[in-house]
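lol ok so funny story. i was supposed to be doing the assay writeup but got distracted and ended up predicting the structure for this chain instead. priorities right. anyway since i did it might as well share w the group, maybe its usefull for someone
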Amino acid sequence: MLVAGVLSLSGRYAFQGRLAGAGLQQAVADARSAGGIRLGDRHVLPELVVLDDRGTRAGVRRALDALVEADLVVGPYGSDLVREAGTWAAERGRVLWNHGGSADDVERLPGVVSVASPASRYLAAVLEALAPHRPSARVLLAAGRGGFGQHAAQGAQQAAARLGVSVVDSMPHDEVPEAPDADVLVMAGTFEQDVALLRRLRTRPPVIGAVAAGLGAFANELGRQAEGVLAPTQWEEGVHFAADFGPRPAHVVRALRARVLSTLSAGTATSHVEYPSAQAYAAVLVALHCLEDAGSLDDEALGAAARRLRCTTFFGRFGLGEDGRQLDHDVLVVQWCAGVKRIVWPSEVAETELDASPV
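and the output, tada:
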């Protein structure tokens, strides 16, 4: 039973793609170690093949065309690339198991099954975490021009209106002044865009939130400038869910840590498991569970099983809304404290209290 993954092993998403690749590899390895997957009245052993999309939409198409006979198709990293993959899947009536594209319109595409919360929840979660500490904050949004950034900004504006927080403006990263007149600056662009904007600031607002800060590489790039920055994240090692199925969280963390260290090149590996690895693992875990539930490799049956599924894995809750978006999974908020990411929201899983004082 062939599981096919399309990932950026080179190009602009190479770092995230390799992290996701480690997650795919470990999920399939764990399924094989457990004796395979029950498919009707027999057991099958999954095998994995991953092709490099080189970070381009054309590359995604070429890779998917080469893998068209695969039984399960796992999508790439990056909303723009997943949008292309989702279009390809819809044209062929295939299910695309999505771990790496969170733009709301991408998650709504027919046949796309997403394990991660949509982009509209990213900055909204940061504002919800901040609201009790800075209820009258003036917020500036820096949003990437792509679908992910725009959906993140829209979600933040809706959350601000609900929370009574004032959004003073929303603009692309390169238009944000070096001394923003705001209490809170939140940003949702590419990793490079978020890091570049933080470096460019001459006067830092009291509170900063950045999607890029969800990755450990953020602190590697910025050093002490990362201190106090908040970030939305899909998953962290420090959160432990009571899983309905699949491996225990402690096993997944140990296995992924070993896999990541052996997969990434020297100088890029980290002892901390990043959420791109975890969500890729979760996508395979959910896909294999749906395969067992459906008892068939038929994509229509697999899609129906995914829409029915309500569960909790090591990654958190899974449940698709009527429009196809992942609605049951919760976004976490972390804050960089003394060079370490700590979960600060929601309160029931927080490792420490959010510090909203100026850095």
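The chain has eleven helices and 16 strands. Residues 110 and 325 are 10 Å apart (CA to CA).
back to the writeup now i swear
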